[in-house]
Amino acid sequence: MEFNETSWLVTGALAAGLVVQVWLARRHVSFIERHKGQVPGAFAGKITLAAHQKAADYTVAKTGLGMVSMTVSAVVLLLWTFGGGLEALNGFWLSFSGGGIVSGTAFILSFLLISATIDVPASLYSTFVIEERYGFNKMTGRLFVIDMVKGLMLAFLLGTPLIMVVLWLMESSGALWWLFVWMVWTGFSLLVMWAYPRFIAPLFNRFQPLDDSVLKERIVTLLERCGFSSNGIFVMDGSKRSGHGNAYFTGFGANKRIVFFDTLVQSLSVDETEAVLAHELGHFKYGHIRRRIVLMSALSLTGLAILGWLFENPDFYFGLGVSEVSSHTGLVLFMLVMPLFTFFISPLFAALSRRDEFEADEYARQQSDGSQLISALVKMYEENASTLTPDPLHSAFYDSHPPASIRITHLLENG
Asked: Are 382 and 408 in contact (CB under 8 A)?
C-alpha cells in the first residue's frame, strides 16, 4: 500500500494520542508517589496512612497496566490497517460468499471476536493479579469464563440482526443512509437501556428485593419527597465478583430500578445509604441522565454523518490498507480510527460530568444530611482504594468525578 493524506492523518493522531496518554499516565504515577507519605488534610483522622498508601499502590498498578494496554492497542490498530489485517480478514470471508450482507456481517463479527480475544490477557491480569493482590477479587476462573461466554453469546444475539439491518440500510437507502442508521441505532440503544435491568443484568447477577425494613422505609420516604418513582429497590450480589461497592440506577421510564451492591449495603449506615441515594436522585432531578442520552445521540449522528462523507472517499479505505470500498470495511475502519480523534475532546466531557457530580452532591445535601454523604464518600474511597491524590491534569483529562479532596472540601464549604 502507498501512504496518502488519510494514512498520515491517522498515523499522526495515533502517535500524538499515545504520547499524550503515556505522558499523562507517568505524571499521574509520579504525583501519587510524591504524595504517598501523608494523608491529605481533608481526610486526616478519617483514613489511615496504610489505607492511603494501599490506594496509591493500587492506582499506580492499574495505571501501569493501562500504559501497557494502550501501547498494545496502538500496535493492534497498525496491524489491522497498515499491516493488512483487515484486508486479509475481508478476503477470507469474500472467498466463501463473494460479498453481500452475510459476508459483511461475518467480517464485522469476526473482527469484534478477535478484538475481544486480544483484550483477554489484560482482563485476566487485572482481575487475577492486580485485584487479587489488593484484596478485591472474588472472581473464580470458572466464573470468568462463564461471564465471557455469556457476554459473547449476548453480543452475537443482539449484534447480528443490528449489523445486518445497518448494512442493508447502507446499501439500499441512498445518500442519507447515515440518517436512517442513526434512527435505528438510537432506537436500539433505548431498547437495550429499557431491557437491561429486567432481562440482561439478571443473566450475570442475582437481584434480590431490599429486605432491610428500616432502610427500605427511609428510601421510600426519600423517593416520595423527591418525586421519584421506580420499579423496585434491589440488592445485587456484587461480592460474587469483587469487593468494590457501588450503587446505581438502571433502565428508564416505568422500568427504572435502584440497585445497591451488597458490599455497599453492608458497609454503610442507613443515614449514609440514604445520602448516597439522594446523590443519585440528584442526577435525575437535574436531568443529567436525559442530557447525556441526548448528547450521545447527537454525537452518534455527527459520527455517522462523517462516515457518510468518508464512505464516498476511496482514499479513506486505500490509505488504511483496505482495497475494497464497502459498507462493512468502512464501518470497521471508522470504529478503529474515530477514537484517535475523539480522545482529544475527552476533557470536555469529563468536565461536564464533574459539574453534574457537584450538582448531585448539592441536591443530596439538600435532601439528606450532608455530613452523612461525606462520611459515606470517605468509606467508599477507602474501601474501593480510590486514590486521594490524583495528578490534577490527569484528573481533568479523564475523571468523570471530582478528585476526592476537592469534592469533600466543596461539600464542607457549602454545608
From this structure: no
Active site residue 382: no
Q: For 254-293, give the DSSP string.
A: GG-EEEEEHHHHHHS-HHHHHHHHHHHHHHHHTTHHHHHH
Exposed (0-12), middle (13-18) or buried (19+): which is 331, by Cβ within 10 Å?
Answer: buried
Rg (CA), the chain: 23
280 is catalytic: yes
Which residues in 8-40 are b (16+ Cβ under 10 Å) and which e? eebbebbeebbeebeebbebbbebbeebbeebb
How many other C-beta atoms are found inside a 10 Å radius of the C-beta of residue 415? 11
Catalytic residue, chosen from 272, 274, 357, 361, is 361
Q: Please state the domain extents for the chain.
A: 1-415
Amino acid code (one letter) for 109: L
The phi, psi pair for 207, rounded to 5°, reads -120, 120
Helix 346-367 vs helix 270-285: angle between axes, to the nearest 10 degrees?
Answer: 120
Cβ–Cβ < 8 Å for 236, 202: no
Catalytic site residue from 280, 356, 357, 391: 280
Q: What is the pLDDT of residues 14-65, one digit of tens each?
A: 999 999 999 999 999 999 999 999 998 888 888 999 999 999 999 999 999 9
pLDDT digit string (tens) for 114-160? 999 999 999 999 999 999 999 999 999 999 999 999 999 999 999 99
As a whole number of angstroms, the distance between CA 15 and CA 289 comes to 34
Other beta carbons within 10 angstroms of residue 118's beta carbon come to 13
Rounded-to-integer distance, Cα 354 and Cα 340, Å: 23
**Distance, CA of 288 to CA of 260 (rounded, Å):** 20
